[in-house]
Amino acid sequence: MWIAAAAALMGAAPAVPTVAAGEIVLPRADARFVLHETTARPGGQLSEYRRSDEPAEKWTRAVALTRQLFYPGTSEKIRADAPALASLVAAISGSAIQSSCSGATVKVTRADPSDQFAAATLRVRCPREAITHDPMLTYVRVIVAQEAIHSVTAMVRGEATRADVEWADRVISDLTLCNAGDVAGRCAARSRVIGAPL
Length: 198
Fold this sequence. Notes:
With 198 residues, the protein is α+β, with helices and mostly antiparallel strands. 26% of the residues lie in helices and 34% in strands. It contains 4 helices and 9 strands. The strands form 2 sheets. It has a 7-stranded antiparallel beta sheet with strand order 2-3-4-8-7-6-5, sandwiched between helices. It has a two-stranded antiparallel sheet with strand order 1-9. A hairpin with a 2-residue loop joins β2 (33-41) and β3 (44-51). α1 (2-10) runs antiparallel to α2 (75-99). It is globular and about 45 Å long. The chain starts with a helix and ends in a 9-residue tail after the last helix. The model is unreliable at 1-14 and 16-20 (pLDDT under 50).
């Protein structure tokens, strides 16, 4: 849903990007979290990480990484509108979560840059998730980078403690932008294999 809104802001036709992007945003490494599922989308990808010691259906903390490539021919427009686009995508993400959770509250916590890129951050508190009926805390960081719009999401299911809040804030704050040519450190160690650690 947010893809169409972003395309409208960029003045782009909804064409699928034709080049593969090596760009990815990674949170701080945490070997307790492993790649649980990856889903391809037109021009993008969603990767979900969950704790390896928790059942898939009863997780308490999870991390999701979403990447949506820029539409062909829109790079200049995106760069000009990057702050507005980051805020728009964050707002749409918050609205989507809010629409699936009665009584959810959304707060944009900051709209500051991430390194040299435009970014926006929001926090959503859901008092009763539709599937499990548990409370849910969700932090989302949207970054408009060189090749794509990225979102890093940290989710806590159940009553969030102070430690949960600090964890979620760290996940979306301590980020590394990797490109296809990066061969050192965190970027070189990344893996897209199911079961690979975050």
